[in-house]
Fold each of these.
Amino acid sequence: MVIVIDFGSQYTQLIVRKIRELGFRSEILPFNTPIEEIINKKPGAIILSGGPRSVTEKNAPTINPLIWTLGIPLLGICYGMQLISQQFGGKVASSPTKEYGSSLLVLNKYLHDESPLFKDVPSQDTVWMSHGDYISSLPSSFTAYASTESCPFAAMGNPEKRIYGVQFHPEVTHTHSGKKILHNFLSVVAGLKPDWSIKSYLEEITSSIKAFVGEGKVIVALSGGVDSTIMITLLSKTLPGQIYPIFIDHGLLRFQEADEVLQALAKLGIPVNLVNAQDRFFKALKKVKDGEKKRKIMGREFIMVLEAEAQKIPGVTHLAQGTIYPDVIESAVSVSGLAAKIKTHHNVGGLPKRLRLKLVEPLRYLFKDEVRELGKLLGLPLSIIERRPFPGPGLAVRMLGEVTMDRANKLRMVDEIFRDELKKWEGYKNIWQAFAVLTGVKTVGVKGDERSYEELVAIRAVSSTDGMTADWIEIPPAVLRKISERITREVAGVNRVVYDITTKPPSTIEWE
């Protein structure tokens, strides 16, 4: 067992995901977990996560110092490394140069072959940074292993105590050798042996669902995306005859998406009840411009529609939805309670007591790539498994400003043109997510020798594996030109197109 101590990082569960990829079992515990509980779990290794706070703050989250005396191999990441440094007599200060995104890590040459943490790692490598503080003075009992241009102590260690720290995030995909570094810590430093797989997870979650639901009836909330489709496939195999799938059309789906979803599920032999609730959602969203309010309204209306549908099913006991962990993290439902809230997800936060249903979320602790692997195990076709993600609130959060039917139709057309042209490009297979945004900004243009004053549209395409981090895709200029020409020519009310070239972080993938 590998224990991950959570200090509120957006990446905490990502650490666990990487550990799973390496084949090790892992569990997250809050930073204030009693030391006796940690000891009772008999961990083979402990990892301290990053976090949004500063160790120099008053009442900053900390940990029982007895943890340093247990003799258990320990790795601190970002905030975790700074906490180790502070506890062992080092100094932490606000960095004059903040590091967010990719940085070049340079290992100290004379230590390159001596540190087990960096065994077989290049002497110079790209890492992912996200910090405002840095270690200005290293503890005397620790050795500096690496640096970046603006961070003199980017990695440190005390081999005798088997305590190490890295300022960067090895759990993030954009740290090129991050997985290797974690492997070195778990296998070389801690001497652990792998025993976990997505197959073992499927066996465990299937058994857990059967025990939790028993003979009950489950209403299943579908959005039509990868997560909900894989969830309902899992539940149909696990609870045959006990599920009641509901697909809510809120009027903010992509072009012809409702038909595509129903056809895909029909091929899987899963009958679905389609509920047309477009008028209800547009009425609830009328004159609402704030993105967070839109998300909360969408969540509220979803629950109310599901509540009405549940009343039509005698004896229904449970509600299932396809929540995955990035949704939970960005909604700040972290184990420690310290995670900074990024945005509300309509399917996160529990159910109102009046619904009297128990919540079933079999994918809640999985990331998108793990969900896809689960889909393969369940025998789903690639056309479903490789489907691009789509937010639960739909086009409402890709429409800055007021949500109206006219704007939704306009955005549907823009989005369809964008994705249609991308599908013709050979690089489409590398895109994890691609979509268009109505910005609500109007700009001056010229159409037919006349002045136009129409809406600015933004387009975005990113690569990612789990949705926690993302990089923008370099679409060839010729493809971008074609996309822009078609959008401004074929969609009334649009006269300008811009391409979003921002990574996550500092942005999120969606605009709202």
Note: The longest helix spans residues 291-310.
Amino acid sequence: MYYSPKDIRIEEMPTPEMGKDEILVNMKACGICGSDLMDWYLETRVPLVLGHEPAGIIVKKGGSVTGFNVSDRVFVHHHVACLRCHYCAHGDYTLCKQFHETNIEPGGLAEYFRVPAPNLQIDTLKIPDAISFEEATLIEPVGCCLRALKKCDIKKGDSVVIIGAGATGIIHTALSKVFGATRIIVSDLIDYRLNVAKKFGAEVVVNPKNEDILETVKAETDGRGVDIAVVTAPNLEAYKVGLSVCRRGGKLCVFAPTEPGKYLRVSPKELFLSEIRLIPSYSTSHLETREALRLIKSGKLDAKELITHRFRLADAAKAFTTALESTESLKVIVLNE
């Protein structure tokens, strides 16, 4: 139960009641997301059970459920769109009203959680035997990154800058390689993360404490700037850098939110003349989760190498502290064994 980033408690609550068209899942592994660490994003809803990257085993199913059986290993997406509204008709699934109303109960960081009918029908995926529960926790974050790069229309031969080399920054690095980017530059203030970025496909890494990223980008792109800049660091300076390294006609992907009240000054004149496009990308849909599962299964994205720390559910507080404070952590997951 989350009360604040440094106040995580283990509490007992009843096992959720399940409807005839729902399932009950025994959580086996659940990742901690960067959004789980943003107190400003959560403080109006506390206390609450977090966890939206869960994988587990179906232990009970309603009488109307078809296509799933008790003992199936599953990944469950915590939000799903209605597939019928104006937003869904335009492919904006994450803006659908139902998307924000469908939640697993009480959350992924629980021994058992209920999967509502829409989530079960639209975005609950069976986990192949070749994929572990730990790897399956990466389906949702990989899906988020897939959606962002596809919105940016990444193409073979593109140059890409990724600002922020946490877990999602590393996933963007690996996916950029999968999509055929030929120049991948990663920036972060922590050398450990930059070394990991190299392993996942970054040709050039930059620590802004020691190097000028703009000069590095110019040198690597014949002075043009990059085709795509992805900002995964939730601060204004990162966005200023992202704009500065884009080429004319380039794309800046807004992947990380800043705190409320923080604003980026952008000149419409400069945007008009440079034709730089700002492309926000929030969350993921049922389309990308399936593709993420295929990528992990194929080995094109080595999900398990992203996991740096594992904690038991009883030690969830330590998991949050590690994710929040450790400079040598990427993906922290909680196991229910």
Note: The chain has two domains: 2-142+284-335, 153-280.
